[in-house]
């Protein structure tokens, strides 16, 4: 089934050229199907690029998905046209009385700032608190995962001696969990961050399980048994050239940056990057939508109650 997205969203043309099945609002309303309602809280500065990356993955599913877009009212984005925000985005105040099957909270390039110093931290805390009763399953990405682990459980982040930058091999710790159904024994994920969360802090919280990690990149996937929240520290959604764009930008600005690991053939930035993570990314998002959203969410979203009272397909909320 297709992904239903707003008419005239810039991502539509890109996705259609890639044979991602999209559906405009008019056609979607003609089908007698209750689509999954997904909220995308987009904290990235390049919002249009992030929209396209995530819609590409959400659209590769047999489920019909309806996506709403939210941005923080307490921060004025500088890299996205105001007209785009007005046309396609809403604020928390505008959506807080709705309920959603799922929500994605993206990363943001602010991981070296203390959480409390982030301009929109208070608003983000309100949104994360709201998600407990109004969203069936929430997927947090990179800084969004660090922020949620800190907010919900007080788990700190730590500065890294150098940026975790590249495409790294990962393994699955709990193969029986449906999030990683169909994954290879070793799979690759892009990372681009200056901070990390640590296994020893997560292991102190009995409500959390570490589902996947990397010898080089550390903890990758964590699940919250009580609230059905998932925390993903990497960027499976990245396009083939996203790391190249970040690398070229930092080089041009004279910033200290290593060549992204396991990305260019022979570590040569003059060559075309090798994509190693696309199949795992598609599996991750389709498994989340199917097993952690669709299989558990109530048909009538108005019956959605505090998520600690609900259980996912794996049992015990995981």
State the helicity in percent bands: 25-40%
End-to-end Cα distance: 25 Å
- What is the count of distinct domains? 1
Number of strands: 12
Question: Under the CATH scheme, which architecture would be assigned?
Answer: 3-Layer(aba) Sandwich
Identify the overall geometry: globular
What is the makeup of the main sheet? 12 strands, mixed
The portion of residues forming beta strands comes to 15-25%
Taken in chain order, the helices and strands follow as EHEHEHEHEHEHEHEEHEEEHH
Radius of gyration from the alpha-carbon trace, in angstroms: 19 Å
The CATH superfamily label reads: Class I glutamine amidotransferase (GATase) domain
The average pLDDT score comes to 87
Content-based structural category: alpha/beta
Give the CATH class: Alpha Beta
Low-pLDDT sequence parts: 27-32, 307-313
Keywords: Acyltransferase, Amino-acid biosynthesis, Cytoplasm, Methionine biosynthesis, Transferase
GO molecular function, one term: homoserine O-acetyltransferase activity
Pfam families: HTS
Enzyme class: transferase
